[in-house]
Amino acid sequence: MSWQMCKAVNKGQETESNLAEKRTSLLTGNPLPMLIYDLETLGFQEVNESATRQYGYNCQEFLKLSLLDICLPEEIPAVLEVVRSPSASVDPEQIWTQVKKDGTHFQVTARANNITYEGRPSRFVVVEDITERRTLHDRLFRMAHHDSLTGLPNRVLLQERMAQAFATADAREHRAAIICMDLDKFKQINDWYGHGVGDECLKHVGTMLTRRLRGMDTVARTGGEEFTVVLGEVESVEAAGRVGSALLQSFGKPMDVDGHKVDLGVSMGIAVYPDHGTDMQELWRNADAAMYRAKRAGGHRFVLVAPDISTAAADSVALAEYMRSMLEERKFCLHYQLQYDLYGKIRGMEALLRLPDQHHGYVSPERFITLAEENGLIHPLGRWVIEETCRQLMQWNVPGREPLRIAVNVSPLQLMRLDFAAEVREILTQSGVNPEWLEMEITERVVLNFDIIAERMKEISAMGIRFAVDDFGTGYSSLQHLHRLPISTVKIDRSFVQRLCEPNSGSYPIVEAIISMGHSLNMQVIAEGVEDKEQMKALQRLGCDAMQGFFLSRPMVETEIEALLGIYSKVAVGY
Ligand code: C2E
Ligand code: MG
Ligand code: MG
């Protein structure tokens, strides 16, 4: 064996054979791979048994190789730099990747010394395989920083990411946000379906959140059914709220877990850095408190930390609680606004949802509908609107009277629910309403979720229910685009009608274009918000099919409509 034949040529008092013996025992007995290479040719002059075992070459093969043959090609420039440095000093912490005879890799740290070997300037290298140590270290690191069930970062790693996100926010002058999330009624899921399904739900939630968020955000599991999200680069408090709302929507649909359809709700508290605190713990605490507030308010909603907790957020929470109790007590009501056709005949009416307040007035639908969409209440509320409209239709559309059609407003969130069509069918069957008496108004916003809702709309229109696009002209859609959906009516937004007769407002040609384009696509066109005779006349001239507005009819309660219904065929509306 070559190391046994090795000859020392060191200067000194010791004899050559003495030194050779010492080196031989040093090399042979050592468990660490040792190599000697020629500093000029880089060819190996000597290797020990441990090195042959480690690298997979036998001794003869090894001595035909050069140092570069066992290095990773990408690392060769760095290796050459070390080789050329006269001091032979290698950073003991530096990790090098080495290549075995079979092409596989392993990682080492190295120590080296310059020596003279057989009269030539050489370098003596001891390497230590740290692959196993690294793997173990990586595993321990993962275990210490990740949750074993979901594989998501845990509290420890989350804190690091939070600190990074806040530092980046400072440096780039933007914001970051923390969202504390707690699954609603998770205990029930465990009780009903067993822990296996419970665990699968948690994994499902982890995957879903990770998919919904961006690479710069972190999703962590921070407790049993608790997740915390750190959003990097957030533009504003509102933007953080929008993320909350989007996440809430993702939870709105039942999850398919192990063959079970599981309905998971989530309560969220959102705190924005630096608006709601600059200290990590303080911010986290605030988000957590907001999350509990969301829970107390009934769950499945998000609460943004407000500078003054008792203001906006608390108002929303109080309003949400109020809505919930009013829905339970069936104290919401519908008002109906009549629509007239070109000839002054009633075309139908629109049902508008009303929430009575404690002072004999009404809460603005814009405010409570938005909140209901944020907290999931829109689903039971929307269902109630359809049921109540159907009840009303059955009462009014008695045999012998020309049937009336009622339009209900439907939120895009309702249409996104997989079971919405089935729900509508069930209500129709139970009430006995002819589907042709119903119209559904959807806003242009639905176009953003085109694919998801298209299918649902097709199912519903196949039943015979018509669709109208509400507030047309305020969104981003073109009529051609909407034409791919089963839409039979387009409602020109009030803002255009209001400026219709103002010179130079630009509204007139827009309304004209919507009407002619609508007609070319076989759609009926209705103008909303007609407030005076001048607007009505202009719309008539433009050939608008129908009109709705305070000038023609204010929204009315059931009894007012009933009083009118007896005479509706004789109503003159001033055409
Ligand atoms: P929308 O569907 O566009 O309803 C028309 C709104 O315009 C109603 O406001 C109505 O009162 C108002 N309006 C009608 N004619 C005139 C007019 O000549 N001038 C003016 N200035 N306003 C007029 P309302 O009842 O406050 O409803 C606001 C919005 O709330 C509705 O707009 C609709 O988007 C939503 N909404 C109402 N009920 C429901 C519902 O049951 N479900 C859903 N998802 N949304 C609803
Ligand atoms: Mg409407
Ligand atoms: Mg409208």
Largest sheet: 8 strands, mixed, barrel
The bound ligands are: ligand C2E, magnesium ion
Percentage of residues in strands:
15-25%
Query: Based on CA inertia axes, which overall geometry fits?
Result: elongated
Unreliable stretches (pLDDT < 50, length at least 5) are: 1-14, 309-313, 567-575
What is the first-to-last residue Cα distance? 114 Å
Strand order of the largest sheet: 13-14-16-17-18-19-20-21
Task: Please explain how this structure is put together.
- The protein is α/β, with parallel strands linked by helices and 575 residues long.
- The protein folds into three domains: 133 residues, PAS domain (Beta-Lactamase), CATH 3.30.450; 160 residues, 2-Layer Sandwich (Alpha-Beta Plaits), CATH 3.30.70.270; 248 residues, Alpha-Beta Barrel (TIM Barrel), CATH 3.20.20.450.
- Helices cover 43% and strands 22% of the residues.
- It has 22 helices and 21 strands.
- The strands form four sheets. An eight-stranded mixed barrel has the order 13-14-16-17-18-19-20-21. Strands 2-1-5-4-3 form a five-stranded antiparallel sheet. It has a five-stranded mixed sheet with strand order 7-8-6-11-12, sandwiched between helices.
- Helix 8 packs across helix 9, helix 12 crosses helix 13 and helix 14 runs parallel beside helix 16.
- The protein is elongated, with a radius of gyration of 37 Å.
- It binds ligand C2E and magnesium ion (2 copies).
- One magnesium ion binds next to loops.
